[in-house]
Design goal:
Blueprint: H1 5-11, E1 26-31, H2 35-50, E2 54-55, E3 64-69, H3 76-93, E4 98-103, H4 104-109, H5 112-116, E5 122-124, H6 132-142, E6 146-148, E7 169-173, E8 175-176, H7 187-191, E9 195-196, H8 199-211, E10 216-220, H9 236-245, E11 252-256, H10 265-273, E12 280-282, H11 290-296, H12 302-315, E13 320-327, H13 334-347, E14 351-356, H14 374-397, E15 403-408, H15 416-419, E16 421-425, E17 431-435, E18 446-450, E19 453-454, E20 459-461, E21 467-469, H16 472-482
Parallel strand pairs: 1-2, 1-3, 3-4, 4-5, 5-6, 7-10, 10-11, 12-13, 13-14, 17-20
Antiparallel strand pairs: 8-9, 15-16, 15-18, 16-17, 18-21, 19-20
């Protein structure tokens, strides 16, 4: 949500938020973790701008820093408290500065955060992000830290104001929470049971986004293809894909992250038969060993997983499939690990997001016997990475010579300026760097190119562009640049790893997919 500063100030319902010569306070949201956190951060930004804040520029210290945290990885606590420690002297010299901590780690640690970092002003959880402006005002008036954690969802986040980081691609949450009980994952305890949005509400949001110029949406859920369990319709997700596919002007539909247990034939058919649903799938494996999968409480086995992969490729031979894998789960033997390597060879993933098992207090796996020694986990992890790199490169080489339409992205190519290239995503979500066309091209436009070179993690198109198509999304991006507001940070087109707002001079945020999938 972007408004003229004057309008935002007039609407400000919290007088305590007004300061400085400009009459407006600045904010920065720092996002750690998964796509759902990025979605929530866009809502937090929208709420703050609705309350009269403006997004901070690259210079100077913001008046408010909000950390939207992740609790999936073991080092999440160290990352947060390290960042908070670095902010303490900044707050001392910046009179009136406030610090808020939200997200999954806040839901877990609660009052512990203000005990360990008493300079924090507000702690809020995953179920009450809409309360942030009021909590900030209360903390300022009472000069006392405010800790508010709710145990169930009060307002679906998608109904809140939003400030999207991209003019051409958007996240749309179709559900929140998770009904699974994976022994390694703390997310269900922090996000709660699954709650589904009504299909009409989801479609209305997508139509509104398309009206604003968006041409790509990603449907989000902790277990996205379980959508409908709360509505009493087992085929609700495939029906939603088909219905979204009918929205005029919507060119690309993606979703993340599904669960193999709920990945049914009707979903595969909807993907194959709906032209604007991309032939790209992120399917978390976690382990290839049936014994380990049982210990993880993953309700599928190796045969079921590989069966899904075969069915997807039969329906969509060009499908690009990625995955998540955990190495070193408690009790994992060399034989178990070799089963994972076998699945990786058979499935031939385009890429894999691999994690060394990380203990999370409060999860059953943290108390399991036979924790695998660190050096063993590292050696297995290195072998898995080497295998997947080889497969990723081989699969990408198959793209050489193909003609692809690339959706031009902002912030995808770190070396674009030096190489005189632009970057974007192919329909199957592969990252493509291509020669900059002679005519002007904007993020959100599309460029048709021929792939000339493949690396394990990207493709190159070194020849001239075959076609350039200016789009409504490019128009929306151009309009946003002309608006009197801070330039938005880049957002990556694709999954599961996504862009996040630019960092303060603190530790970098974590990326990647949620382990709650």
């Amino acid at each position: 949500m972007v408004e003229a500063p004057g309008k935002a100030l007039r609407r400000c319902p919290y007088p305590g938020l007004v300061s400085g010569e400009s009459g407006l306070k600045s904010y920065k949201v720092v996002t750690h973790g998964c796509q759902m956190n990025v979605h929530d951060s866009e809502r937090l930004s929208g709420l703050l701008e609705d309350a009269g804040y403006v997004k901070a520029g690259p210079e100077g210290d913001p008046d408010l820093v909000v950390f939207n945290t992740c609790a999936v990885r073991e080092n999440a606590d160290n990352k947060l408290y390290g960042n908070l420690g670095q902010l303490a002297p900044v707050k001392t010299r910046h009179k009136g500065m406030q610090i808020a901590v939200g997200g999954c780690l806040a839901q877990k640690d609660r009052e512990t955060i203000v005990k360990r970092a008493p300079w924090v002003d507000v702690v809020f959880g995953t179920h009450n992000i809409g309360h942030l402006p009021a909590l900030l005002e209360r903390a300022a008036v009472e000069r006392k830290a405010q800790v508010e954690i709710l145990e169930s969802l009060e307002t679906f986040p998608s109904t809140l104001p939003t400030r999207r980081e991209s003019a051409y691609a958007a996240w749309v949450a179709i559900s929140v929470g998770c009904n699974n009980t994976c022994t390694f994952c703390i997310v269900p305890a922090l996000r709660g049971k699954e709650e589904d949005r009504r299909p009409g509400d989801v479609l209305a949001e997508i139509e509104a986004l398309v009206g604003e110029g968006v041409i790509e949406v990603t449907l989000l859920g902790q277990n996205v293809n379980a959508y409908g369990s709360d509505l009493g319709d087992r085929e609700a997700f495939s029906k939603l894909l088909r219905a979204a596919g009918q929205i005029e002007g919507l060119e690309r539909i993606r979703f993340t992250s599904p669960h193999p247990r709920d990945f049914t034939d009707d979903v595969i058919a909807a993907m194959a038969e709906t032209p604007n649903v991309m032939h790209q799938l992120h399917m978390p494996l976690q382990s290839g060993s049936d014994r380990v999968l049982k210990a993880m409480r993953r309700s599928y086995r190796q045969e079921r997983f590989l069966g899904i992969i075969r069915k997807v490729r039969e329906a969509m031979p060009d499908a690009a499939i990625s995955t998540d894998i955990i190495v070193g789960f408690p009790g994992e033997t060399e034989e178990d690990f070799e089963e994972t390597m076998h699945v990786v060879r058979e499935a031939r993933f385009t890429n894999a997001f691999t994690f060394q098992y990380s203990k999370r207090p409060g999860t059953p796996a943290a108390e399991m016997a036979d924790q695998v020694p660190k050096e063993v986990v590292q050696a297995r992890y290195d072998r898995l990475i080497a295998l997947q790199e080889e497969i990723s490169w081989e699969e990408n080489k198959k793209q050489v010579g193909r003609t692809l339409e690339i959706l031009v992205a902002e912030g995808e190519g770190k070396k674009d300026d030096q190489t005189r290239r632009l970057s974007g995503r192919a329909p199957d979500n592969r990252l493509v760097h291509f020669t900059k066309p002679e005519e002007p091209v904007r993020p959100g436009d599309t460029v048709t190119v021929e792939i000339t070179y493949a690396a394990p993690h990207h493709l190159l198109a070194e020849g001239p562009a075959l076609a350039v198509r200016r789009t409504r999304a490019g128009d929306a991006w151009e309009k946003r640049q002309a608006a009197p507001a801070a330039k938005p940070a880049g957002v990556l087109l694709g999954l599961p790893k996504i862009g996040a707002p630019a960092e303060l001079p603190l530790a970098a945020p974590a990326g990647g997919a949620c382990c709650g999938d």
